[in-house]
Amino acid sequence: MEHTNNQPLLTVIVPCYNVEKYVDKCISSIVNQTYSNLEILLIDDGSTDSTGKKCDEWKNRDLRIRVIHKQNEGLPYARKTGVENTTADYIAFVDSDDWIDTNMYSDMMSALLTTNSDIAQCDYCTVYEDGRVKHRVNERQSDLQVMNRMEAMKKIILKPYWTAFWINIFKKHLFDGIVFKKELAYGEDLIIHYMFHRSSQTVYLDREYYFYLIRNDSISNHGAIQDDMKRFCEITDAWYDRYIFLKPHPEYNNIIKFVKHKTICLCMGLMRNMIVYPKCFPKEHFKYTVKQLSSISITQDDKLHKLIKFEIRIIMFNPKLYKILRTLYVFVIRITNKLKITNRKTSVRMMNVLLYW
Fold it and tell me: What is the Cα–Cα distance from 127 to 216, expressed in whole angstroms?
């Protein structure tokens, strides 16, 4: 690991795909960091606009930048490519349409090294294309907060807005053996619990160093039913994987209850949507989701809505019967809505639980 002026080398991985409008501001914010000992990996994920060209131009302007051009495989594999090509012992990520505060890495690396932590984490603010800025909290604490593994895991799972990769600096060894799922469009940050589980300590800086841009054309803002259902499937799978991972670890008992409840509700919401929008799903996906739900041990102590408990009983008794009854229910609601007798929704297309997982 290379050191310059007592600064350990930090690799910043920037996955780039068709962001010609935003990438210059992003890269500029990285190269102008007060923490200078950086290796900047720009991963051009098969861009079809001028993004790749802009990355190459930046490489010619700053010797710390390397560009990797690859075929389009999605954000997780772009991150994977970056991790595999880093030469540093510390890794950070920036999405190519966002930007960061000038002192972000200087302050975070100082906190990381001073406290001998495995992960450093900061806060962020949301920026809209019309210039509006949304701050998450008004009052800030000046002191660093040091968390052990249990405290950090509880934070990122019970408060999912802490799940994002890009507000953290990680020690590289935390990624050993981590599986990045190819072409995942949604929920790509939900594997972060693996790194926090492996870490012994996390330090948190209570300041908004990261500027997260909400784009009008971003993948999370698409309104098509097909996109919503894909998002629903992938986030449900991600939470189910998280439940399966945590289940054998009794030390996470309180966390598991939350993950279990969320996973059950997502499975049920997904199955309802499969009946309302059958053309959006492969035929075998209903059976697949029933299998996921069946593997979760549901007890009387689980605080689930009475209707969900009732539906689960029917599914466990006979999935085909549930499908018939739910299809009949959707048909009746559609008829009564058409006749203006009722105005009830037949699905949970994008439940609040999915707004930020």
Answer: 11
pLDDT in tens, 264-303: 999 999 999 999 999 999 989 999 999 999 999 888 778 8
CB 269 within 8 A of CB 305: no
Q: Which sign does the torsion angle of CA 180, 185, 187, 189 carry? A: positive
Assigned CATH class of 3-220: alpha beta
CA angle 80/83/89 to nearest 5° reads 160
Token representation of residue 316: 């466990």
pLDDT tens-digit profile of 79-125?
Answer: 999 999 999 999 999 999 999 999 999 999 999 999 999 999 999 99
Q: What percent of the chain has pLDDT over 70?
A: 92
d(CA 355, CA 211): 19
- Strands 90-93 and 145-148 come out as unpaired
pTM above 0.85, yes or no: yes
Domain with CATH 3.90.550.10 in the chain: 3-220
